[in-house]
Structure formats: structure tokens, C-alpha cells
Design brief:
alpha/beta
């Protein structure tokens, strides 16, 4: 029973496939269960659930939330949350509006380095651009081909992600902060909506010395870690396996499949992608939902 608990659709703005296409791909690959977890968006869930039911694929409703905690940029996955609730709709709308307000400032910051990009081109891709969108526009503009800042990224397999992670995301030199809620707020939101909060690909923004950050999140209600992911190498996996050993937390797996943005992330192709993680999430969802209904 092969699963993939971290899949993106076109509702994320940086993925290539619609919810229907994702479900069809998963069925063709003989996956048993997927979780659609778009960036701060639940716009693809209804379609994904419909096609999952029609084609016999279990689709878990999810969302990947961008958050901050003590200066760290963290991605928190929420599974089985009530995505049609007014709270969720209000949250996603506030994120869209927050990103819109920073577009001109972010473009200005990038232009200071001699890079070319235009607001119109950025907004053609999505009305609420995330950090990688600016990098995509930069690499697509032929006027930037000789910019020395981009030289090293022409030698890597994924220049957009490499440049974005080195220069544009929170904490990097060319970042203009977008609105990101505190991790505490998001964990509370997920749990209030009956969902299960899981920290996605922790090694992307945390070092082994940052395990105290995860300790904080667990105290706030985090239920587990995405240990097996296309982002983690064997060293990362071993570290988080050891971290989880003495804790009653859920271990999950997810490819973080997008399409061409992350060509090395293949749908369903991650370690330990068996159904046990889904069973653990369902148990936690049942417990959290009962608690939420009593509040």
C-alpha cells in the first residue's frame, strides 16, 4: 500500500498538474493514498477528493503552511483539517493579501543587484507570488543571462530552487519579509480544525543544533515530523530517526512533488512509504477532533 503524503497541485502556483491530473498519475503509479498539501491553499482539495473517490484513490485533505518560529522559516503540514471552515477561508485570504503587499518591495530588492524582472511578469504567474516565483522570472529573462550572481546556478540541476534558497527565502540577503504567521498560531489553527500538524522536511531550514526548535513545536501541539522526503539525505534521515526514537510522535513520508520545479522529487518515490503513517495520522485526527469538539 504505497503512499505519498506531500503532493502539490496547480493550487500552489508552483506546480504543474491539476488535482485531477495528480490523482490520475497516482492511480497509474498504483499508489494507495496521497495527501494534497498546497502552499497556504485549499483550493485544489475539493477537485482532488472528487477524482480520488471516482478513481478509487484515497486522498487526504491537507495544506502546507509557511510559518515562523524564533527567526526560523518552517513549513507545517496540516492533515485531515476542515478545509471548508470559515477560519480556513479567512486564513488563506489573509496570506494572499499579505503576499500582494510585498511584490513591489521584493522586486526592488532584487533589482538593486542588477537583476531584471518586472511586476507585470511576476503577477502573470500568480496574483500572490511566493519566493520561488521571483527566481523563476529572473531565470526566464534573457537579460539576466550574464549576471554574475546567477553564474554558479547554471551548473546545478535546479537553478531556481538553488538561487531562491541561497538568496531570497527568509534570512537570506535579498529577502523582503512576506507575512508569515507564527508556528504557534498555525498549529493551533490546524488542531482547532480537527487536523494533525506535522513539520515538513525539517532539514531544509533547521540544523541538528536546532532540535530545540522542534521541542518547542511539540510543546505547542506538533504531532510529528516528515522524516522521509526528497529533501533529506541519509544523514538527515538518521538524525531525525534518532530524534524520534524516544518520542511518541508520528513519522511521515512525502515526496514534495511539484513537477518541473523539483524534478528529483518523484510522485510516490520516497522511503518508508507504507500505510502505517496514514493509520497513525487517522488515530491522531480522531483524538484531536474529539478534543476540538469539546472546546
Amino acid at each position: 500500500m504505497v503512499i505519498d503524503l506531500h503532493v502539490h497541485t496547480t493550487a500552489s502556483s508552483d506546480a504543474d498538474y491539476t488535482p485531477q491530473e495528480i490523482v490520475e498519475m497516482a492511480v497509474n503509479k498504483k499508489l494507495w493514498t496521497i495527501a494534497i498539501a498546497d502552499h497556504d491553499s485549499v483550493a485544489g482539495l475539493e477537485e482532488g477528493l472528487y477524482w480520488g473517490h471516482k478513481l478509487g484513490l484515497e486522498v487526504i485533505p491537507g495544506c502546507e503552511f509557511y510559518t515562523e518560529h524564533k527567526g526560523k522559516w518552517l513549513h507545517i503540514l496540516g492533515y485531515f483539517l476542515d478545509f471548508k471552515s470559515p477560519q480556513m477561508i479567512s486564513y488563506t485570504q489573509s496570506i494572499i493579501e499579505g503576499r500582494k503587499r510585498t511584490v513591489q518591495k521584493q522586486i526592488g530588492k532584487l533589482k538593486e543587484t542588477g537583476l531584471y524582472l518586472e511586476e507585470e511578469t511576476v503577477l502573470q504567474r500568480t496574483p500572490s507570488p511566493m519566493y520561488h516565483v521571483y527566481a523563476e522570472v529572473i531565470f526566464a529573462d534573457s537579460r539576466n543571462k550574464n549576471n554574475p550572481l546567477l553564474k554558479k546556478y547554471k551548473q546545478v540541476s535546479n537553478p531556481v530552487v538553488g538561487f531562491c534558497m541561497d538568496w531570497v527565502v527568509p534570512g537570506k540577503p535579498l529577502n523582503v519579509p512576506q507575512y508569515s504567521p507564527q508556528a504557534k498560531t498555525v498549529i493551533e489553527l490546524i488542531r482547532a480544525l480537527g487536523g494533525v500538524p506535522i513539520l515538513a522536511h525539517p532539514a531544509v531550514t533547521l540544523t541538528p543544533d536546532d532540535d530545540v526548535i522542534i521541542d518547542d513545536l511539540v510543546k505547542l501541539g506538533l504531532a510529528g515530523l516528515e522524516v522521509y522526503t526528497s529533501w533529506h539525505n541519509e544523514i538527515n534521515e538518521k538524525h531525525y530517526e534518532a530524534y524520534m526514537q524516544d518520542k511518541e510522535l508520528i513519522v511521515t513520508c512525502g515526496s514534495d512533488f511539484h513537477g518541473k520545479l523539483k524534478p528529483k522529487a518523484k510522485l510516490g518515490e520516497i522511503k518508508n512509504n507504507n500505510y502505517e503513517a496514514v493509520e497513525k495520522l487517522k488515530e491522531a485526527n480522531s483524538t484531536i477532533s474529539r478534543h476540538a469538539s469539546c472546546i
